[in-house]
Structures are given as C-alpha cells and as structure tokens.
Design brief:
By secondary structure, this protein is an alpha+beta fold. The protein has two domains: 38 residues; 158 residues, Immunoglobulins (Immunoglobulin-like, Sandwich), CATH 2.60.40.10. It has two helices and eight strands.
Amino acid sequence: MAVQPSAFFPYNTYKNPVPEMCELNRYSALLAIIALVMMAVTSCDPTGYRVSDLDVVFISNISNDPVFSWKIDAVPGGFAQRACQVIVSDDPARVEKGDGNIWDSKKMETTNSIQFRYVGPALECGRQYFTAVRVWDNQKRPSAWSETVRFVVPLVYPGDWQAEWLTYDYDPGAAMPLFRKVFRIPDAAEISYARFYIADPGY
C-alpha cells in the first residue's frame, strides 16, 4: 500500500524552506553591501568622519566679526567632537596648506560646532577671505581639513559707502523708472575680483 506524503508532511504544517533560504541570502548580501560601503568611506579618511557644510555668517547687531558653523559626517555613529581649529587667510593657497595667516584659533577644547566666534584681528570691510576647519573626536583623532570656503566682510553703512543713490522724483501715478549705469574697464586692466552691491526699496 502506497504511503501518502501527507502522512509525514501534513499540508497544514509543511513549509517550503526555499523562500526562507532566498530571504536569508538577500539579507546576507545587504549586510555585505553595507560593510563594503563603510569600508570605502573609512578608507577615504582613517578617522571615519569628515567636516562638511562649513558656513560663515555675520550677525550685525552683535558684532562685525564672522561666526562659523559646520556639520560632521560620521561613519559609524557614536561620534563626539572634543576640539576644533579654525583658520582664516587672505590666500586660498595658504588655507589648503593649513596656514591661517590672518587668524588661527589653534586647537581649542570645545564641543561647539554652531556659531563659533572669530576672535582675531579686525577684518577689512568689503574684502574677501578664506577659511577652513578641522575637528578632533572623542578618541583625540584629528579630521582632515574641510573644504575651503570664501566669505566677504560686509560693508558698514554709511561709513564704507562711497557711492550715491540713483533716485528720481517719486510720482505714485508714474511707471517705475529703469536705472542704468555704464562704466568702462581699460583693456590693459586685470581684474582678479569684483563685487556689486545692489539695493532697492523692496516694494
């Protein structure tokens, strides 16, 4: 008498192992991909983290000096900043070499990465400068320098303004005028940097 398969493997309790094996293989492959990505990121920087999004702002009602903020991209997690160093230079090539000829904060023990204050010599209004930052983690390992960031010190009104306002006799019923200013640059002139300051009433 033939034995029915259901006598040993009832249909209501038997499970096909193939789908579970496929799911396990997919999970193992996903873990392998994550491990490879982490190894690739870590190989770029032995510390496993880097400084990014360095930002420079001026809070005019507090000080005419800049404040710096940055973010930390950490792999793996558990990173804690313990110190930082900010440099400012008038030459981007100096910053790339880690030389802050205008100001060097040196290594400062701090966990602050938001609104870090500049406390160097007075910066010239309207002039451009370059900056970078690096940090140390809770294992006292320094990061690489961040990307160099350019910033311009704002002009102080009215002391730094030498131009005159272009205006007209206002008439509510008249169309808004179009202002134009023409200037010429000598052919032999070499311009390394130019900046325009433009303002309007903001209607």
